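Entry 14: structure prediction run for Tetracycline resistance protein, TetA/multidrug resistance protein MdtG. Input pasted below.
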Amino acid sequence: MAEKKLTALSHLFVTYFMSNFASFIVYPAITDVTMSALCPATDECSLAIYLSGFQQAIIGLGTTLMMPIIGNLSDQYGRKALLTIPMTLSIIPLAVLACNRTTSYYYVYYVLKIITSMVCDGSINCLALAYLADNISENQRASAFGILSGVSSASFVCGTLAARFLSAASIFQVGTCVSMVAVVYMRIFLKESIPDDQVESSTLTQPILKEGEDTIPKIGNAPIKKPIFKKIPSLGDIICLFKSSPSFTKTAIVAFFNYLAEGGTSASTMYYLKASFHFNKNQYADLMLITGLVGTVSQLFLMPLLVSPIGDRRLLSIGLLFGFANAFLYSIAWAAWVPYAATALTAVSVFSFPSIQSIASKQVGPSEQGKAQGCIQGISSLSNVIAPLIFSPLTAYFLSEDAPIRFPGFSMMCIAIILIIGFIQSLMIESSPSSSSDKNSSNCMEV
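Run finished. Output tokens:
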């Protein structure tokens, strides 16, 4: 049985690696492609910043609504079935830029990216985490989530390294091909983590809704199968999940601040580095490569050693504190080498993400892992709605000649402040008993 689980997890890791590789290989090039399409031959482009921020906000709004739904449906119909949808959709926008990167093609990509990412962004990560939780016991879950993050970091390193030596046209062609291979590999080799006889009955064993609302009508002795829309969680179901566990609620608050800082970093860092130090595709790739290597080694080897003696709650706080230090150094960077030096702090700051996921996972039972991870990813998406609305205009303003003071790293300083708020909140998360999911569900039934 253990060998079967190990094989299943190895196929998950390979699928996850290829899917993330296809996304990360295009990341270093997308800023140059965007600015070349919108503002050729310039180092500053407010239009590119605002369009990128708008795209990020709309995608975040869509995924905020979609993540809890996808997570919940995976509890009903299985992780593999739901994985097929985002992995297939993610191929489409990459294929557009693989054909051409002119202004017209870029706008087609821009629209398709928004539409597909509403389903794709975060859902692969959410479903992979739920798949791991199906196969890993609670006391090993933090290490397993750390390893999954390490696989993501490894794909980040490989994708960034490939982008460093490939042309823009080749980057998008390789990304498209790897995405296709990932879907085929997943469909052939990955086994469903939820047994067939539990896929349709998991909601009934640990209901979230009130008993009266969860009753299934019968015709004779044959129950009527619930329609799909009845299995989609309502706002009340999500609120009930938060009420059932104070630790889950506090973890969700910390996740909001952590992901808000991440969204702000995505919205501002590259434009800040380009305007301040004239970074290009190769320098972005070098910086990402160092960051990814440090994060990979730390999550694969250092975190599993620390999680047992320290615990995931303390690792979360430590990770947020180092994330604050990293953002602060970026904000006051006085030379191009400072961002490179700051990547050393990534070795510890990467602990925050798997720690959040591990703490959240322990607050619910086996039949609610998809819902819990979907809620956390939904919070991540909500942060991605808010972050560009704040940081895109803030970055553009402080990089422009109209800025009230000469402080191009002001947006990074704001990110540092957000992370220190998250750190303070993380100290308030209490240690909770091992997964009292039956209790959580019954509490919801009594609401």
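Notes: The CA atoms of residues 75 and 370 lie 6 Å apart. Will compare against the previous run tomorrow.
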